[in-house]
Amino acid sequence: MSTLQQEIAKRRTFGIISHPDAGKTTLTEKLLLFGGAIQKAGAVKSNKADKAATSDFMEIEKQRGISVATSVMGFEYLNTKINILDTPGHKDFAEDTYRTLTAVDSVILVVDCVKGVEEQTKKLMQVCRMRHTPVIIFINKMDREGKDPFDLLEELEKELNISTRPLSWPIGIGHSFKGVYQLNNKSLNLFSANKKHIADDLITINDLNDKKVDELVGDKMANKLREEVELIETVAEPFDRDLYLSGYLAPVFFGSAINNFGVQELLETFIKIAPSPQGRETDIRKVEPIENKFTGFIFKIHANLDPNHRDRIAFCRICSGKFQRNTFYQHNRLNKKLKFASPTSFMADSKSLVEEAFPGDVVGLYDSGNFKIGDTLTEGEALQFVGIPSFSPEIFKELENTDPMKTKQLEKGIHQLSDEGVAQLFIQNPGNRKIIGTVGELQFEVIQFRLKNEYGASCIFRHMNTSKAMWVSATSSEELEKFTQRYHQKTAYDKENKPVFLAGSQFDIDYAIKQFPEISFHETSEWELLEK
Ligand code: G4P
After folding, report:
1. Cα(360)–Cα(168) distance, rounded to whole angstroms?
2. What's the first-to-final CA gap in the chain, in angstroms?
3. Distance in angstroms (rounded) separating the CA atoms of residues 328 and 373
4. 510: closest CA among 482, 480, 470?
């Protein structure tokens, strides 16, 4: 095996996703503890911004600042290089999370056993399903009185539109939680609430009918476990890794992250079954990680709010070949050669200089304004990674310039902020009317503050009667023009100049579909790729 092949084979790059409060931060931290990447709990700051009031956006930005440090957490475990890509928990930053999901090869979804499937869980899973991302589900907080595990599985299948296959099974729940039985290696893992120890005590049993089980968990529990395991093994198909890898089947684990329970088997199974770095589509061909030449793309940009340190950090996912420090690479959109003197990797509360990186790795590149989300770096080949779609924002407002002397600054600022992915910008002509679309109110405050603070420009936002953006297309340009003329007040153009229908309501959309049967309406900007 070549070095490159070996480096690819040993990497697993994934994201942990959840509805806020399900335990994403806690699980991340426990995984880092196992990997020896941190020494004690508490080193990973929770995105407690989740709990802050919307008006407190500086606090949230500060938290985001902290979360730069935890953007990518790499560690080695059992000879595997694990890269965890952090995703913001706050709903208003959901777009950041969607984009981060374009840079992972698989995800672990954390579900709270008391709450079951929640709103954000559904949205995040929709994005995973669209990209056929392999998903492992970790049902957390089994030390609490939660829902019945069979009901939970049914809920997951129904709400998330995915098949499930438990690989571990809980023995009791809440006060009576005794542990889990691991279906694949027939071992019992008994629970003792323990926030300090990081290893589970495994008791291997060859047969569930062994009297030892009764002694360990009590007759009643032991019999219940036998019945349930029998039911699973008769009803459920054996675990099929290919179905998991193609995104149709989610293996399920039960545990309690805060008590370090069930985390080790999750991690060890993850290493065995999760995919190593995968190929990625570009506008001209699919790039495979094993290709010798380096390619990568920017999926996240983090601005520094401190006016004295204006630089930004662009996060680049390596897709193929080997990335090297101080080497010239081609920035395809700008047709410019760039080299990076201090590419960085981030780890909990430390960061370090990267000399070289391999497919699946993420490097932070200091940037003075060259990058926007989706930008591609190569050794010269003119290709562009695709599949970083925009979704319809949920809130739309018209941006009004309140300081005509600073028009240029406002123009520059709002374009740069939208390149960074703070919000989506739609332009309506004639008049260069700017419409800002976001998933949360918070972004409007962020934009107003940053325009003032970084560009000296002032603006206000006006309410709009728009609730959804749909990208539109037609087989002929005449048809499309007929539509955009009829709906000129409701048509705007996105950053790539793609036409977008700004609908007031679902009724609006249904009516337009009826009126213009030859027009196709799409939920995302990259419909060509995703609807293939
Ligand atoms: P998030 O990143 O998904 O938002 O969740 P986070 O890990 O911050 O966990 C949310 C809350 O749930 C935390 O409590 C955390 O301690 C708790 N938690 C996580 N795992 C478990 C578990 O297995 N069992 C139980 N019972 N609780 C769990 P908090 O009170 O909000 O914060 P903290 O003061 O404990 O940090």
Report:
1. 28
2. 34
3. 20
4. 470
Ligand 1 midpoint to CA 26 (Å): 6
Q: Which amino acid residue places its CA nearest to atom 16 of ligand 1?
A: 258
Report the length, in residues, of the chain: 532
Question: Which helix (H) or strand (E) segment is 295 a member of?
Answer: strand 295-303
Sketch out the chain's domains with CATH numbers: 3-273 (3.40.50.300), 280-378 (3.40.50.300), 395-530 (3.30.70.3280)
Q: Is 525 helix (H, G, I), strand (E, B) or coil?
A: coil
Give 203-233 pLDDT, tens digit per residue.
777 788 888 888 888 899 999 999 999 999 9
Confidence (pTM):
0.86
CB under 8 Å to 82, separation ≥6 — which residues? 11, 12, 14, 31, 35, 74, 75, 76, 271
* Residue 370 alpha carbon to ligand 1 centre in Å: 39
Whether the Cβ atoms of residue 158 and residue 173 lie closer than 8 Å to each other: no
Give the pairing of strands 249-254 and 163-166. parallel
Ligand 1 centroid – CA 257 distance (Å): 8
CA pair distance 209, 42, nearest whole angstrom:
41
Report which of 340, 297, 300 is spatially closest to residue 420, judged by C-alpha positions: 300
User: What does the pLDDT read at residue 50?
Assistant: 43
Answer for the pair 321, 377: CB distance below 8 angstroms, yes or no: no
Q: pLDDT tens digit string along 99-155?
A: 899 999 999 999 999 999 998 898 889 889 888 999 999 999 999 999 999 999 999
Token reading at 487: 């709906």
Which residues approach ligand 1 with their CB closer than 6 A?
Answer: 18, 20-26, 46, 50, 89, 140-141, 143-144, 256-259
Write the burial class of residue 476 (CB in 10 Å: 0-12 exposed, 13-18 middle, 19+ buried).
exposed
What are the E-state strand segments in 350-467? 350-353, 356-357, 362-367, 376-378, 395-401, 424-428, 433-438, 459-463
pLDDT tens-digit readout, 83-99: 999 887 667 777 888 88
Cis amide prior to 430 (ω within 30 degrees) = yes
Sheet holding 329-331, edge to edge: 336-338, 329-331, 376-378, 295-303, 312-320, 362-367, 344-347, 350-353
How far apart, in whole angstroms, are the C-alpha atoms of residue 279 and residue 281? 7
